[in-house]
Every structure is written in C-alpha cells, then in structure tokens.
Amino acid sequence: MKKSLKQVNLKVVLIGLVLMVISCSKEDAETVEFESSEAVITATELKVSDESELISEEVTAIAEDVYAADEISTTSKVDFRSDYLPDCVTIATVVTDTTKERTLDFGEGCELPNGNTLSGIIKLSYVKDMTLAQKTIALVLENFTFNGVSVEGGADILRVRSNENGNPQGTANASFNATWPEGETASFTGTRTREWIEGYGSGFWGDNVFLITGKRTFINKAGNTFDKEVVSPLRRELSCRFIVSGVLDITRNENTASLDFGDGSCDAKGILTLPDGSSEEVFLRRFLKN
Fold this sequence. Notes:
Elements: H1 2-37, H2 43-76, E1 90-95, E2 99-105, E3 110-111, E4 117-127, E5 134-146, E6 149-160, E7 169-179, E8 185-198, E9 209-220, E10 225-237, E11 243-252, E12 255-263, E13 269-273, E14 279-283
Antiparallel strand pairs: 1-2, 2-4, 3-4, 4-5, 5-6, 6-7, 7-8, 8-9, 9-10, 10-11, 11-12, 12-13, 13-14
C-alpha cells in the first residue's frame, strides 16, 4: 500500500512539473509575441493617432479664427465678424493695459458648422497691441471635449501676420492628452506650422484653407511612441471635418508607415502604407456621427 501511494505521489509531482513547464513555455511565447509586436505599426494604432491630429488642428483653427477676427477689426477699423463659431459659443473678453484674454465657452455641447461637437472652454491670451507683426497666443483647455473625446493641455502659437508668401501663419508648440469614451488614451506634443492660404478676412468660414507642416510625437495607451512628420503639406479646409490631402509619415522603432489623406475630397478615407509596403484604405469612423 505504501509503495502504491509513493508511486501515485511521484506521478502527481511529475504531472505538476509538466504543467509548470507548459505554463512557463506559454508565458514565454506570449512575451515574445508581445515584444515582437512592439516593432509593428498597426492600422488601429494609426487611426487613433490620426484622430489626435484632427483634434489638435480643430482647436488651433478655432484659436486662429478668433484672433484673426480681432486683428482684422482692429487694423481695418471695421467691425469684422467671423461666422465660423455658432451662437451656442459664449465669448467673454477681459482687457488690461497690455493684454487681452478671451474665454470661449462651448457649454455642454455645441456643434460647429463642419459637424464637430465641442464642449467646455478654450482660453486665449495675447498682447493687446494688434499692430505688431508677430505675437504669441497662449491657449489653454478646461473641461474640454471634442466629439466625446476628453482633451487636456494647451499650446503657444507664434502668430505672424504675413509670412514670406504674404499669408498669415501660426506656429504652434502644443501638448495635449486625450481620453476616448471607450478608455483609449493618447498624448501628443510637438510643433506645427499652419499657413492660412485661402479665405483670410472673407468673413465666410467655408472658404478658409490651411496648409500644415511640422513634426509631432504621439504616445498611445500602451506607452508606445510614434514620431510623426509631415512630408507633403496637409491641406485642411475648414468646411470639412477631415484633413483632405497631404502625406504624414509615422515612425516607431525604425519602422515607418505613411498615411496619405487623399485627393482633396472631404471624406473620412485615407491610404495607409505599412512598413512592409502593403497598402490599405482606412476610415476615421470614430468622428462620424451615428
């Protein structure tokens, strides 16, 4: 009987050791798979990255639109008004001897003409003297959301009234953190230059067009870092929710993917070329209303 028990116990020990080896092997395999995946840029990651671009560009566009209206009204001596921000936005202005502070309150939800819905506050601050050839606009977000995405952070925008092409231009050093409703998070920092190539001073938001260049760093929820550089200027038409053309390179661990925003059509489509050379059409579904 004792011999039988010893044999049973030995069998149990051996089975336990086998299970431990199998378990460890499985964990090792999962670890290797995870580590190898860190070097790969997926379409899902790039969609979130691309959506962060839209948030940053919309916020910057609003800041420049409000500033431009103030600039034109002051320098041309006429009561110029932009029609981009709807009546649901409340704008409060505080003027000191040297500065002007403007608070844009979107309430609990305010839909812009291009269909994007914003809530919360954008605060702007800049030097009062509007005759200066260039100045810095400070931008801060408070309790702000963009189509349900919670966004924190701010930017300093170097505003030039006339660049070498004779166009207004803003160079923004920005830092934002975003949280999507489903829990996805991201941070994006960097410098972008936006040249206002069409529609400045027209008073009609639908003809405003910008060309965007620059670099930015994007960090997703998993902590993966992406370096993003515009290799062909991104064209942003204010009448459209989406960037309509241009090419953005996204690099992670020396692997580079390329996102082509299209032929100028206002749609949610782009062509993504992955590091292995394969291409696919991607859609910015999160920003389309149900």
